[in-house]
Every structure is written in C-alpha cells, then in structure tokens.
Amino acid sequence: MLNRFLAPVLRDELSFSPAVALLGPRQAGKTTLALQVAQGLPHVYLDLESERDRAKLAQPELYLEGHLDKLVILDEVHRAPGLFPVLRGLIDRARREGQVQGDSAGRYLLLGSASLDVLKQSGETLAGRIAYLELAPLNLLEAGAQAQDALWLRGGFPPSLQAPSLARSLQWRENFIRSYLERDIPQFGPRIAADTLRRFWTMLAHHQGGLLNVAQLARNLGVDAKTAQSYISLLVDLLLVRRLPPWHANLGKRLVKAPKVYVRDSGLVHALLGIATREQLLSHMVVGASWESHCMESLLSCAPPGVSAHFYRTSAGAEIDLLLAWPGGELWAVEFKRSLMPKLERGFHHACQDLQPSRKWVVYPGQESFPVAADIQAVSLHTLCEKLAGTS
Questions:
Q1: Residue 101 predicted with pLDDT over 60
Q2: 260 phi and psi, to 5 degrees?
Q3: Range 7-134 classified under CATH 1.20.1260.10
C-alpha cells in the first residue's frame, strides 16, 4: 500500500473539523486514502455513483442520524448536492447540544473529483464547518526516488505508474482521457463535443508551460475567446490544468501579467501528444516543459499549507520558473534545468536581485547537491521535495 503524503494531514483535519472535503481528479487515490485513514475507526462508506448507496440517502437526515457515532465517507459527493444543508443541520445540532469540538469533529469526509461544484455548494452551506484538502497524483516522495524516470514518463496516477508495461500505462491514460471527455466533463459543465475539448486539451499540452494567450487558443480552435476561457476554467476546476499566476509586487518593473498554463500530470501530457517511450520524449520539443511541470507538481504536492506558487518575469527578461511565497513573506526561488551541468541565465540572477529570495535552488536530474554560485544550490528533485516536506 502506498503511503500518501497527505494521510497525516487528513487525520489531523478530521480530529478538528466536523467535515473535511478531499478533492482531487479521478483515480488519484482519494477513496483508497480515505479508507486507509478510516481503518480502526467506526465508519461507513457510501459511493454516491452507486444507485444502491444513493437509495440509502433517500431520507438523508434519517439515515445519517443513525450513524452519528461513525465517520461517514461520502464519495463523489457532487452527485447529491442536497446533502449539504442536511450535514449543516446535523453539525449545528451537535454543537447546540453541548458537545465539545473534539466530539463533533471528523463526522463527515466528502470526496469530490472536481473543485467547482463541491466548493460552491459546501461554501454556501458549510462555511466555518468544513476544511478543504487536495490530493494530487503521486509525487516523488510517495513514488520513491528510484521511480523518478517512470513517474516523469507515466505520470503520477497510481494505475498508470504501476501498470505492468509502458503499453498498458499508455492505454490506461488514453482511456482516462476518453472517460473524462465523454462521461465526466459533461457532468460538471455545459455539453462540449468530446473531440473539440480533446483538441483544446492537446493544444494546452503542446503549449505546456507557456504564457496563457486565450485569444490565440480561441483562434486556433475556431471559437470565441469567452468560450476558450470557459474551457480552461473547466479543466482548472477539474484539477487537470494549472494556471500559475505571475508574482506581482510594487518593484517599479514592467511585469508579465498573463499566467502560465500547464497540464498538471506529465503522463497525461505525453498521452495527449502521442509520446509512448522515454526515447520519444527526449527527442520531442515538449521535453523541457514536461520536465519543468513534472518537477513543479511534485514540489507543490510536498509544500506545506499556506505556501503559494507563482512565477516571475519582467519585460526586460528577468525570470524565475517557480517562486514559492511563505505566509510570513519569505520567498524561495526555484529554477528547473534538465541538464547534469546546469547553468543559470542572467535573467535568473536579475530576478533574484529584484526579489531578494532567502533560498535559491536549481533542480536538475542528478542526485548530488552542489553550489552553482555562492548562494545558489543545485539539488535533485527528491532532495528539494524532502526539504519542503520537512518544513511543514
């Protein structure tokens, strides 16, 4: 069984919050993690995609009142939006009856494959009663340092990473994409032709790590900019695409204002582009951007709560690939180089002069750590993931 980085965080939230929403794309391992955390606890699990389990909630208040002494796990909770007012009533009733916070904590664990519906519905009815956690596909600490090449090529979804062959892994990812396009996405947004959205998703993969130009994407797809923007927002809400915002500060510089856009899982990038093997990846024009996004997603999955991610770029060419901003104002600058002899451009040094980050890192494919400059350290992805995880 995989040890997920989020497991102790989830246990801690369940010990404090009456309800916890665990969000993440399908097949990221939400159900497995929920049942793992529930081991040893009295609990009941309901899969709301199952007609039999939905039937149990025909009278939800009556059913849930019979399980007030258990952790209730509600999978695919967007299937039953009417549950949120019921959960609010049960939580508030427990509080009014004088139970201490610890006694009413951890009653409900809600699992969702998208952020948009769950956040909107729960935010309206469970404000102050619910905590949110996001489970990404496997990061490098979870997969193990020895799996770095496989994790980059296959991505972090457990069935893809653990498939018995490259062909099986690629087939799983292609089926995953098709399932999302034909079955899942129509549940969450307006009806969009599957081939149109696949072309759009593939365009984003070709443009991996580039500045978001909605007008250009719209022209290439033959739709208006508003429609293209809605497609991006839908994929972001489904936790499949990341919009990385630029860092804005009053520095007297002309800063780039457009976000960068990434398909979050490198394995899906490669499936969308028809890349089946490491050799094909290394000769493809997306290789650098794919390496960058692979590293970035692992780092952000390991970062402690409250750390925000940005990039920095000025019109003069100063640039930092990833800028981590800590709640107290501390900044870490991270550059990604897919070379065993990483060299930094002037733009990185100029950007560091602008922002004065406290830590400066270069993530490269090797294993040893060494100084690139007096205050800049080259490290492996695994090493920096450990440093981030150790700060939580």
A1: no
A2: -90, 155
A3: no
